[in-house]
Amino acid sequence: MKSTWWRGRRAPLVLAAVLLAVLATLAIVLSGPGETGQAAPPQVTAQAATSTTPPSGAPVPEPAGEAVAEGLPKVDPLSIDVPKIEAKSSLVPLGLNADNTVEVPPITRPMQAGWYVHGPTPGEVGPSVILGHVDGNKQKGIFFRLKELAPGDKVSIARKDGKTAEFAVTKVERVAKDKFPTDAVYGDTTEPELRLITCGGVFDKASNNYLDNIIVFARLIAR
Fold first, then answer.
1. Domain that holds residue 128
2. What is the per-residue pLDDT across 48-93, written as a single tens digit (0 to 9) for each?
3. Domain count, the chain
4. In CATH, what number is assigned to the domain containing residue 10?
5. For the chain, does the N or the C end have fewer beta carbons within 10 angstroms?
């Protein structure tokens, strides 16, 4: 059974051009929490930032801690730790598939997270992107509880240079898969930032997909 899960940004050569949606079609089968049948992961569809669905719930204050405007050198990350949701994982590099779509962590290892190698590394100026499954292979995934994060929660990324980039969450969005905010996720920033992405929302048995995506935005506060 084929399904679509991730539409990401094209390689850096297109950064100066208009952001285009890319289609990922993966032959992956999941079992969603509470579902009796087999389910495929949801699609993340790239659209303009103006299509972003506002986060649900009442406004919350900005996280404590000053943002770090000056970034770290480009160094590969080793692991991620999100204490509030007890999410710890090594980070595997995720590049582009043959059809120029973004790779995802192996579905047979749902507790494995990965980082997008064609973007900034965590701690560099710009948005670093880390992907993880909400579930897979009939098990909970590394980002099963990602939706529980709130502004102020901490995310730590260990790097190969021995440094740890500390981020604070600024906002959490649940976005319909056909309104994925490409510019907001991948667009250039003046400070080091982080994006954590997984699937979420209602599980649609008819399409074997989750209908939404959970996107966590964070900024560097210590290095």
1. 3-222
2. 232 233 333 333 344 556 677 789 999 999 999 999 999 999 999 9
3. 1
4. 2.40.260.10
5. N
